[in-house]
Amino acid sequence: MWHSCLIIMSALLLVGCSQQLQEPAPTVEVLHDGPQQHATPLLDYYLQLEAMSIAELELEWQRLSCDDCPSLQPQRALFIAYRRSPVKNPHRANKLIKSLLEQPLAPEQGAMLLALQAQLDDTLYWYERYLEQQHLAEQQQLDNQQLREQLQQLQQIELQIHERTQDLR
Fold this sequence. Notes:
Distance between the termini: 109 Å
Number of helices: 6
Radius of gyration: 33 Å
């Protein structure tokens, strides 16, 4: 009897596993599948930025400043977010990336910009926390300074009281 129960349970387990194996694997949705743009892939562009000197970065910014070149927008966003960029501005880069993600992009560019946006969101979040902590520290320093001044005033009053009581004796 135990053998037959064991065989039935094994059969049910195998049937359940085989049905689970036949379920389709989740698909990855392609972000902004649109026309391919004839621009340097962003990962390659990032590697190019890494190899540039400060003077070359400044020249690159002049090239990217072309307002009539919408195909350069993804590179411009990466450049503005780049750590050594002479025009680094995470807020501006994040805003530009958000607008780019609403447009049709090559899948690789969309994925890279999405990753960069997540990184910028984290950076901006922690920067805001840093500013809050810096403000709190400054406020505490002011409070401490006021307390020191009050303590000095109280010590002066105490000294005056002590001197007056000495004079009265």
